[in-house]
Specification:
Layout lengths: L1 H5 L6 E2 L2 H6 L2 E4 L6 E4 L5 E2 L10 E4 L6 E2 L1 H14 L7 H6 L5 H8 L6 H18 L5 E2 L3 H8 L9 E5 L4 H10 L8 E3 L12 H10 L6 E5 L2 H9 L3 E5 L7 H4 L4 E3 L2 H7 L3
Length: 271
């Protein structure tokens, strides 16, 4: 019984006195109607969609597929030591991620206006990270099995998957292939693959064009508001994962569905 409750998928129920007596609920603001959801629900839909109609899944990388937190923290602090700056707390550095290496370095420097210092710091960070990107980085538990299952839709058709990260493309591809995930994806793009980064929709629209999939048949999956905004800007469905680097940002920019662990990604497509 407990296991069944944990796996309850978020479901919409109309408010009634009978339901209120049997199910603990809390209000969810929704423009369409006055709806409630179970506090026991782990998968939380804010806007319902049919997962079986999705033909393309676009994943963020850091904080979604891989836990790269420690290597990023070490690389930023190595850069700071190199220029004679004090190291930063790990949680502070993690809060700076999501918008690409230049933004990460600039934030770590305190948004400096010294462009020469910024370029020196960015070059050192990229060089250090290139050598140390796999020191501690791991795949989140369950991700390989989930990806293998997601490749097939409910009707047996092949479902396409891609990665769109704001991390530079070469380390993104190197990490995915080194960790055994690269072959799952038809496209792997990074923050320097296009003239703009997420949340600009260019990367997503390019993937849609290259795969021939309509926007309403695609889902953007990521751990931050940047990923949600990217999906919205390209008119995709969006899924936020709360186990990543920036779960608080998903409260500010809410996705269509929230999951708390990789296993729930698989559950989402087995409804």
């Amino acid at each position: 019984m407990i296991r069944a409750q944990v796996l309850v998928v978020f479901r919409y129920v109309r408010s009634s006195k009978a339901e209120a007596s049997n199910l603990k609920t809390r209000h969810l603001s929704c423009a369409r109607s006055d709806l409630r959801y179970s506090e026991l629900s782990m998968i939380r839909y804010l806007r319902r969609f049919d997962s079986h109609r999705l033909r393309l899944l676009i994943f963020d990388l850091d904080g979604t597929l891989i836990d790269s937190r420690l290597d990023l923290i070490h690389s930023v602090n190595a850069m700071l030591r190199n220029i004679g700056r004090p190291e930063l707390e790990g949680n502070v550095i993690a809060s700076y991620t999501g918008d690409g290496a230049p933004a990460l370095v600039r934030r770590a420097l305190g948004d400096t206006n010294d462009e020469a210092l910024f370029r020196e710091a960015l070059e050192y960070f990229l060089s250090y990270y290139r050598l140390h990107k796999l020191d501690h980085t791991t795949v989140y538990e369950g991700i390989p099995e989930i990806l293998a299952g997601l490749a097939q839709s409910a009707n047996g058709a092949h479902r396409l998957m891609a990665v769109l990260s704001n991390k530079p493309v070469n380390p993104s591809r190197d990490i995915l292939h080194a960790l055994g995930l690269g072959d799952y994806f038809v496209r792997i793009y990074g923050g320097n693959s296009f003239r703009t980064k997420k949340p600009d929709p260019l990367g997503v629209t390019t993937i849609l064009q290259e795969t021939g999939v309509a926007a309403n048949q695609a889902l953007m999956i990521g751990d931050s508001s940047v990923d949600v905004l990217t999906g919205r800007n390209a008119e995709l469905w969006t899924c936020g994962v709360t186990y990543g680097f920036a779960p608080d940002s998903l409260k500010e920019v809410t996705p269509d569905v929230l999951v708390e662990n990789p296993r729930e990604l698989g559950q989402l497509f087995r409804e």
